[in-house]
Specification:
alpha+beta, five-stranded antiparallel sheet, 9 strands, binds 2-acetamido-2-deoxy-beta-D-glucopyranose, LAQU0S05e03290g1_1, membrane, mannosyltransferase activity, transmembrane, GPI_ManTrfase_II_coact_Pga1
Length: 185
């Protein structure tokens, strides 16, 4: 069962490597004071990390215009790895991928002191083909994962698996002299 999970993780990362990706690493300021409640009627695209250290969501991103996704329920002081992933079928480039922290003056009755902060990822999907891409929007997966021990948490399983695999091969080789057997086969 466990090994099946490791294989699934490995295969999913191989698939991701075939698709196109763009990534960014960012740190949430230690002083980050999030908006206490989501503003009603706000249909801002968002990804929540409530009670988890990784999340993935697919967005229909309009081509040739600035797209913004709000990251909510981030822990102050945490470092994250965000990855955008789209299929090679859609010939686009992701440009100006960046993040920003902005005070929300609409909360707390418009008081600008101690305004809560909102965290955004911003980027633009630009067509890179001729003739021009005819679709008005392309699906893009955005995954966000916390970085622990210098490695994004969604890669931990893969790295543990590969370490174990190398260990098993190493031990098997010592006991059975695999190399000599193959050489003399
Ligand atoms: C996007 O995410 C979905 C759901 O996890 C997955 O099935 C799909 O293969 C992903 N697409 C890309 C391009 O990674």
């Amino acid at each position: 069962m466990r090994i099946a999970v490791f294989f699934a993780a490995l295969i999913s990362h191989i698939c991701l490597a075939i698709a196109n990706t763009e990534s960014i690493v960012f740190k949430v300021p230690d002083t980050f004071l999030p908006v206490p409640l989501l503003i009603a009627g706000d249909n801002q695209a968002s990804i929540s990390l409530r009670g988890t250290n990784r999340a993935l969501k697919t967005f229909d991103v309009p081509v040739d215009s600035q797209f913004e996704v709000e990251l909510v329920d981030l822990s102050p002081g945490d470092t994250f790895f965000a990855k955008l992933c789209w299929t090679a079928i859609d010939p686009i480039d992701i440009t100006s991928l960046s993040y920003s922290v902005r005070p929300d003056y609409t909360a707390r009755d418009g008081h600008w002191q101690d305004a809560p902060l909102r965290f955004f990822l911003t980027f633009k999907a630009e067509p890179n083909s001729y003739p021009h891409l005819s679709k008005p929007s392309v699906p893009i997966n955005i995954s966000v994962s916390a970085i622990r021990m210098g490695i994004p948490v969604d890669l931990h399983a893969t790295i543990i698996f590969m370490t174990l695999l190398i260990g098993v091969i190493f031990i098997a080789n010592r006991h059975h002299k695999l190399y000599d057997r193959f050489k003399n086969a």
